Please model this.
Amino acid sequence: MLDLRNVLSPIETANGLPNACYVSDDMYQHEQDTLFRNNWAAIGFGKDIAEPGMVKPVSFLGTPLLLVRTREGRINVFQNVCRHRGMILVDTPQKLRGPITCPYHSWSYDLDGTLRRTPHIGGPGIDTLDSVQHCDYPLINVRTHVWRDIIFVNLGDNAPDFEIATDSLLDRWRVFEQPVFHGGADSSITFTLDCNWKLAVENYCEAYHLPFIHPALNTYSRLEDHYNILDDGGFAGQGTTVYQPQITDDGRRFPKFSALPSQWDKGAEYVALFPNVLLGVHNDHAFAILLTPDGPGRTIEQVELYYADEAACGSDFADMRATNTTMWQTVFAEDVGVVEGMQRGRSASGYDGGKFSAVMDTPTHHFHRWVATELIV
Model:
């Protein structure tokens, strides 16, 4: 195991995480077994199973999972495996007309996971068997919480309740506890990054790189207008006091969230909720970015934009949504070369994890400390 004690030092003397944390298969697996399994990690979005009966298979930590929208609108997550012979139940996203049915022997399950039918289990035409009571063999439930349309799971089933684990962020953004509305097909962006997932988090946490990597953004939301955000636990990031881009030439604006304090007239905040969600909030829209690690050197980045009012998702705002999506796509694309360049740099044997600025890098150092603590325990 790597010696990570110096990562936990005060920022003035600390080094960052060593190269192995970004390139080693063994460290990647250790992360899967600890910080991803033991915390609330994101695996998808409710908008991807928007209607009752919709299901979507995903893989997380090597485990096949199934996202399910019940007839009542509730989101469930189950292990995507039949309790009979371990067959994968669903292999493509779809809307079911009936129960979840195994393609092997047609054992079927209600959308709440209850085993409904076991055809011919007792012989031809006999669908019951005393030794297999349906109530004893539901789908394997996964601990789940949905917040701001993001589907979180705690696969290890050992984390505090989501509201407790994220209480300080929930308190910080209490004014945004309002419905959000996904902008539709024109409000989704996906990147494939040739880098470790942690580099995407680190880059997102800080504003230090703003004038060098995002020159257009820096013209109206400058480095000096930003502040750092730190939490004792599992999030860090940065905010701005002057975010107010001009989306249209005629001055139109998206509808805003209701009853926001004046600090949000031009304010915005960008927070990494550890381990794998990047969040942005503004007075009229928000976004969530899901980072899905795919080995130590590859990450899938899924960006979804949401609006404060359902009207913003209609045709009257289509041009503005397209402009907004393009703007954010440009900003996020500017980061790709940076995170991929840092990944290549992790092959330099002389690199020792790097030196932090005690003024500009406090959110990144906070994330490194969090990772080190989770890996050491």
